[in-house]
Prior knowledge:
CATH architecture of the domain at 399-595: 3-Layer(aba) Sandwich
Number of helices: 22
Amino acid sequence: xxxxxxxxxxxxxxxxxxxxxxxxxxxxxxxxxxxxxxxxxxxxxxxxxxxxxxxxxxxxxxxxxxxxxxxxxxxxxxxxxxxxxxxxxxxxxxxxxxxxxxxxxxxxxxxxxxxxxxxxxxxxxxxxxxxxxxxxxxxxxxxxxxxxxxxxxxxxxxxxxxxxxxxxxxxxxxxxxxxxxxxxxxxxxxxxxxxxxxxxxxxxxxxxxxxxxxxxxxxxxxxxxxxxxxxxxxxxxxxxxxxxxxxxxxxxxxxxxxxxxxxxxxxxxxxxxxxxxxxxxxxxxxxxxxxxxxxxxxxxxxxxxxxxxxxxxxxxxxxxxxxxxxxxxxxxxxxxxxxxxxxxxxxxxxxxxxxxxxxxxxxxxxxxxxxxxxxxxxxxxxxxxxxxxxxxxxxxxxxxxxxxxxxxxxxxxxxxxxxxxxxxxxxxxxxxxxxxxxxxxxxxxxxxxxxxxxxxxxxxxxxxxxxxxxxxxxxxxxxxxxxxxxxxxxxxxxxxxxxxxxxxxxxxxxxxxxxxxxxxxxxxxxxxxxxxxxxxxxxxxxxxxxxxxxxxxxxxxxxxxxxxxxxxxxxxxxxxxxxxxxxxxxxxxxxxxxxxxxxxxxxxxxxxxxxxxxxxxxxxxxxxxxxxxxxxxxxxxxxxxxxxxxxxxxxxxxxxxxxxxxxxxxxxxxxxxxxxxxxxxxxxxxxxxxxxxxxxxxxxxxxxxxxxxxxxxxxxxxxxxxxxxxxxxxxxxxxxxxxxxxxxxxxxxxxxxxxxxxxxxxxxxxxxxx
Length: 770
């Protein structure tokens, strides 16, 4: 028998924290974290050079490495590093997570009712990215790093956090796409840099030290977990690697100065990434000059041997990983086999020294070897700094900024809280209390506001789940129609959750699960007022039926909006916040999932085979909603504040081959690129009646050479404008950096010929010549 509808009255007081967190310990309680060089317990440690924080890190690391035996060294090439008691060094667990708040996935983080029961859970990354707000990315990272240090001080977390995930969201079925900033290399790179800097940078400005250590993962071309029996796979396209998959990692290292990069399970050019010297020693350490350590994805060194059969013995597998540039194994494979590899002459002890030197240098930058952390810069942080009112409000604001308005017929939104006397709230995601709204890689949230709770804080509601579960095998249509037919408005909260898309769980279809579509359409038929469809998901959904149904007046995509997601959804629906999010990924029709093999890693379309390509940069087929799409309750117009050039001339050195032959592109290198750029100054005006934020997206359409992208994002900026207000937004475009393309061999080129810049309805044509 179906459950009767639940009547909910407005909530006048919203709890800020979980009841259990109200009785949290006072600051200073909990277990002290492990640290080396505790001279208060062992004064003899003062004589060790590595325990002297006044010396430079290289000197200290060299001293420590020289004091260790081979067995002791090997204890520090695995994530569960072993202590060296005779030198006053405790063991350390490297694996902690901080994807969108402190997560409990790794053993380095422990939530405990008697110590730290909860931490602020921000929206899943894909929704935060939809804000296109770099300042917001930074604010979230800074809040997370403060809670991380506070948890470390009470023994509840480590100092090394394996976040963010900056893989490209290549395929809408990927279960971990929700963890990423989306499908665009520029947006992903900007997110990575802002978040990494916010995690790592100290408040005293000391660039040689770290607040916590971030890690950009999973390097590289990794975006498939488990689809139709296929697991993480191989990839062999240099052009796609260099112009799509690598840029976010390059930004992480060069611009974000990240302390770590994690190599992935998959193979690139026939080699496992964690055993690929070209990618590790050659690119990360060589070209990009990583100042930090390279860590494997968990057990990927074991996978290299046991599953991929890349080497014939475990010693050879251990050797290829270390010799390729791996410093730390998340797992136990190296501690079990690398000593034998050294004894067989497959690995030199100097390579072990290199690995642990990078690991120890990171720990010294974190203050692990500086004695008691309570005497250091962040030693005063504790329970009082976790789940603060400010952080919880930031979580709500982040969700508000990311929510994307996809449809709004007749300005049916926002609803008026004074004119809506009864609101029907229907759907399996409306009152889910199992933390599915938070997304994967999460910890225990400070509070948890469901959409039903958030909406009930504005108006009286009547609720029914409408489905027996998220898969909606059985839609409870009659019961849902009954409450919808008498309500002034209907909100349907549908979509997916972590049982449909998550790590190790890729989707096969990109339609709404089960009978959700039937439920939505039937409810819309009997509704007497506005019908608002709220889609909670990590990836896009084929909702063409709802887009075309005039009875469904509005559609919102809310990602997985975090602990305050329900409040943020209600704020948008009732107009307390004017939506400004933009989709960070393309929404494809179901036919895409039926025709395109998820294991095909190629980005570019192929007209001979009918392959349509991937992401807005290369995809040539129909879409449900395009990358960058998003509506507002206001209207915004752009106009050029200053004229733009119509010709850009590339100066070539004397004797350049292109001076005597017909070239379609030239190398994007100095000195040719010096001063080759121009400003784009746009006046943006809010022509609506409500204050609101607007994201200015600048796209480039290059000449059709080297199978270049159809278009690509080259700049973006978010502005907030009062009604009728306007602001000049300035972008500086570097032709070689921003408008170049990658050729078939992976070389960056400036295409000659007609380029197009466009912002909204504005288009500007100009030629690049020699």
